[in-house]
Amino acid sequence: MKLKKIGLILAALCVGASMTACSMMNGATSTPAPTMTMPAATMGATPTATGAMNGDNAAMTAAMTATESAALSQKANAAAAQVSEIDGCVTAIMGNTCLAGVTFDKQYQGEMTDRIRDMVSARIQSVAPSVERVAVTHDPEIVAQIQSVADQIAGAKNLSDVAQGFDSVLDKME
């Protein structure tokens, strides 16, 4: 008799535990790996992106000062310029997003390739680990606009003062 009671209690506990586990899983959602694919850009610019969404970028921008952004951009410029095909690089960083405009070495006769884009992105992310999204272009007009945004960031008191210009350039690259 006692054995039946113990067995019944154990069975009830097992059913209860499994129901609790199932109810916890019903509310769970699976989050895909943080990768985004951006469409091919216009005007010779093609961004490469991984990671966070715009809401995350806004929060990170609020936490980052203009001085920190400018200093991080300088490190990113130097790192990206180490790619052998690249003569120079200008970057503007806000939150977890980086705009990168490159100029090619005079001896380089090729075009912007995925390999170069990936190397530039990797170099930037190696010195700026908070950057999850890198948009790279070699279009001279957009490179000049990135330089303008970078200059504005360097002189800004608040990154929010420059956010609209930054987003405008990013939109052109997408």
How would you describe this structure to a colleague?
This protein has 174 residues and is α+β, with helices and mostly antiparallel strands. The chain contains six helices and four strands; from the N terminus they run H-E-H-H-E-E-H-E-H-H. The protein has helices spanning 2-26, 54-63, 66-80, 114-127, 140-155, 163-173, and strands at residues 45-49, 86-94, 97-104, 133-137. Strands 1-4-3-2 form a four-stranded mixed β-sheet, sandwiched between helices. A hairpin with a 2-residue loop joins strand 2 and strand 3 (97-104). Helix 3 (66-80) packs across helix 4. The chain is elongated, with a radius of gyration of 24 Å. The protein starts with a helix and ends with a helix. The model is unreliable at 21-59 (pLDDT under 50).
